Each structure stands twice: as structure tokens, then as C-alpha cells.
Amino acid sequence: MKTLITALVVATTFAVSASAQDMAYVVNDDDYTIEKSLTGVPGDAGAGQAAFVGRKKGNCLACHAVEQLKDSQLFHGEVGPDLSDVGNSYSAEELRLRIVDYKVINDDVIMPAFFRSTGLSNVGKKFKDKTILSAQEVEDIIAYLLTLKS
Amino acid sequence: MKLFLVGLAALGLSLGAAQAQDIDWTKVTLEGFEVPLAYENEDGDLIRSGFTFRTPGTQAMQEDDFANPAFWRVDEGEIAWSTPEGSEGKSCADCHGDAAESMATVGTEYPKVDAESGELLALEHRINKCRTENMGAEAYKWESQGMLTMTVYVRHQSRGKPVNVAVDGPAAPFFEEGKALYNKRVGQLDMACKHCHEDYYGNYIRADFLSQGQSNGFPTYRQKWGKVGSIHRRIRGCMGNIRGAKYPYGSHENTVLELYIAHRGKGLPVETPAVRN
């Protein structure tokens, strides 16, 4: 079954912004994937690493450890799984859903939805109606994760 | 508490917070305390003071009142307690006498429902009620020096005694509100308090070692702040981390959360003024 998840549902009472348009994507519930790239522009692994590490971007190291980054980055988190071999374990399509909104798979998970600005409560002013990452940043991080093989 | 520290060193546990987990904290009681720093509750969960998550260096700062960077507030508070203020020319001591007696368990009981108004009051609310209604003095601002000193002083009178907030009777609806809020996802990061402080305590989140978020040490001296702060300040800090809208100081939301958090740590010793990182 394919479910269309789109911010437009919530946006009906407000002006539809360009970013809301960007948020339309299709989740394949059968194998928990998002097949289609969010942008159509191939991800850049270098930019992806920067977005992965950036504390104001993905800040992924807050929860995940990556052996390949141990020399350049101190303090890797231990809340989520180690991602040093994630490129061997998951496809781009699987990673896309997990970054966009892991709660589709597990609604009790601590991991934020990095590309969803709807269905949230009490969001701080600065972050209201914004996704944590841009669509391209999600694609870049996927490209970076696919390089992680130990 | 030198013996205690020597014990830690002998066990080779002086390197960091993570290793400190190996200690059986249910057997550790600080000098003069009535109850240990951890216990197993009826669900079989180990309830641990924030003390048990910190490094031996931070713990040592709290254990020695002379090294505790917040302890001067206990002395200042004692002076403020008997200093008349406001149009009535009264001090706290004029009505409440010796704080060591009259305030002996107050620090274990707040937040508490005010019998007159039916409102849930944090200790700060209660102090300001006294100031404005009985002393004719101005209310302290929540996070002001005057308020921090007075709340440290009052709660310190209960140091070592187990947290014992009431969550039944008139407090029950406030408790339920607090519980709901504690488990509600908020902020752009869409996390509830429980995700970090129930599901993942004892793990590092980047450089931060997650505790259970217990409140028995508040107002607590935090090295990150370089001063003492209230539990409301701490909750607001968490809200900022998850990119949420911070509930105002003294707000209903923060106060019901404070009640729920206190109940989670019911039985832990009051440590005010505690020292944390």
C-alpha cells in the first residue's frame, strides 16, 4: 500500500508555502522505503558528511557513532545504532524513509523526523513550520551514509 | 566524605561518569542523609539521583560544603530569613521561627496544592505569596538572586530527607497533567521528556551523559550555568534543546511537570544545593 504523506493537508487553512510543496513524498509501507529522490538531484557525499556532523543540521553524531569520524570528531553518541557499516546494511530508499520520518516504522522512537514540519506540538518560534533538514540535505546525507562500509 | 572518595579511587572509578555506573548506589548514603542515592521502586526500576551520573570530581564538589560553590546561599539565606522586608515590617522568622524546625520537611513536599486556593504551588510561588500577602513586600522574580537564595535556604533544611510529594486527592489532576506533559512529544525534534530520561538514561548524547532527570538536588548549582538555577530553568533548557517553545517561569506547565518529576524521584534524598555539570 502506498500512502501519500503531504504537508498540504495541514496547510489548507494557511498559505501554502514552497517548502510545504517540497514535502510531498510517497512511503512504501510494504518494505518501509521512499523510492523517489526528494529532489531529483543526486546527493553529494561530501556535503552530506557536513550536514551529518553539523550540530545545527543533522547533528547525527549526537546519537550515532561512526568509526570513520573518530579521528576528526570527539564525543559520538550511543543512543542510536553505530552507523560505521550502514552502507552495507541499508539501501538509499530505506535510508530515505528512516531520515525523513522514522516514526512511520516505530511510533515510539526517539529519532526525530528530519523532513517533516507537520504534526508537531509546541515548536519554538524560530523552527515553526520548518523541517530540520532541507530535501537536498537529506539526499546528501543518504549519499554520505552509503559510503560508510567497514 | 573523604572515605567515600578514596573508595571510588580504589575501585579505579575516577575516570568518568560512565564507569561510575558500576557502583551499587542503593548502598551509598551521603553523610547525614537519611536515605541512599538510589533505590529500586515497586516496578523493579532503579531510581537514581543525578549525583550518581556525574563524575567523582563533580560529586566531590557537592559533598564538601566548603567546596560547594552554591553553599554561600545557605548562609545568605539564613540572614535573609530573619531580615524584615515590606510594609508590614516582618521577616520570615517572625511567623515561621527557626527554619530548621518549621521548614524541616517543606523541601520534600513541594510542589504542593494550596488548601485555600486549590492551586498547585511551587516553593517559589509559596514564598512570593508570603511576601506579597503577609509581608507587604514585592514578589521576587523567579530566577532572581533573592529567590534562588531563599529557595536554596528553605529546601536545604530538608537535605537528606526523602522527597515526599503528594500526588493524590487535590493533587491528582495536576499529577495527571504533569504525567501527560512528560510523555508528550514537543518541539521540532518531536521528543518527550521520557525519551531521554526514561528510555536512554545512562547513555551519552554527544558529550552529555543522560541522567534520569531527577529534581531532588534543585535548586542546583550547574557548572554550565556557573550558578544555581531552578528546576523550571532546567526544564526550559531541555525545551530549547529539542527546539520547543519554552514554558514561562512559574507557569502551570512547568509546575505540573515539576510535580510529576518530583514524584518519579519520590524517596530520593533532597540534596539542595546539589552540584551538577
How would you describe what is shown here?
The complex is a heterodimer of chains A (150) and B (277). Chain A has helices at residues 8-11, 18-22, 45-53, 86-89, 92-101, 135-145; strands at 2-5, 25-28. Chain A is mainly alpha-helical. Chain A has one domain: Cytochrome Bc1 Complex, Chain D, domain 2 (Orthogonal Bundle), CATH 1.10.760.10. Chain A has a two-stranded antiparallel ribbon with strand order 1-2. The longest helix of chain A has 11 residues, at 135-145. Chain A starts with a strand and ends in a 5-residue tail after the last helix. With 277 residues, chain B is mainly alpha-helical. Chain B folds into two domains: 2-68 and 162-276, Cytochrome c-like domain (Cytochrome Bc1 Complex, Chain D, domain 2), CATH 1.10.760; 72-156, Cytochrome Bc1 Complex, Chain D, domain 2, CATH 1.10.760.10. In chain B, 40% of the residues lie in helices and 8% in strands. Chain B is built from 13 helices and nine strands. Chain B has helices spanning 2-10, 17-20, 56-63, 72-81, 92-96, 99-102, 106-109, 123-135, 145-156, 172-182, 193-199, 231-241, 252-264; strands at residues 38-40, 46-48, 112-113, 120-121, 204-205, 208-209, 220-222, 227-229, 275-276. In chain B, helix 4 crosses helix 9 (145-156) and helix 10 (172-182) crosses helix 13 (252-264). The model of chain B is unreliable at 1-19 (pLDDT under 50). Chain A binds chain B through residues 59, 61-63, 74-79, 103, 110, 112-113, 117, 120-127, 130, 132, and chain B through 184-191, 195-196, 199-200, 203-207, 210, 239-240, 243-246.
Average per-residue pLDDT of chain B, rounded, comes to: 93
CATH topology of the largest domain in chain B, which one? Cytochrome Bc1 Complex, Chain D, domain 2
H/E series of chain A: EHHEHHHH
Give the amount of beta strand of chain A, in percent: 5-15%
Kindly provide the radius of gyration of chain A, computed on alpha-carbon positions and rounded to a whole number of angstroms. 15 Å
Question: What would CATH call the homologous superfamily of chain A?
Answer: Cytochrome c-like domain
Largest sheet of chain A: 2 strands, antiparallel
CATH architecture of the largest domain in chain B: Orthogonal Bundle
Number of domains of chain B: 2
Helical content of chain B, roughly?
40-55%
Strand order of the largest sheet of chain B: 8-7-9
Q: Give the amount of beta strand of chain B, in percent.
A: 5-15%
CATH superfamily of the largest domain in chain B: Cytochrome c-like domain
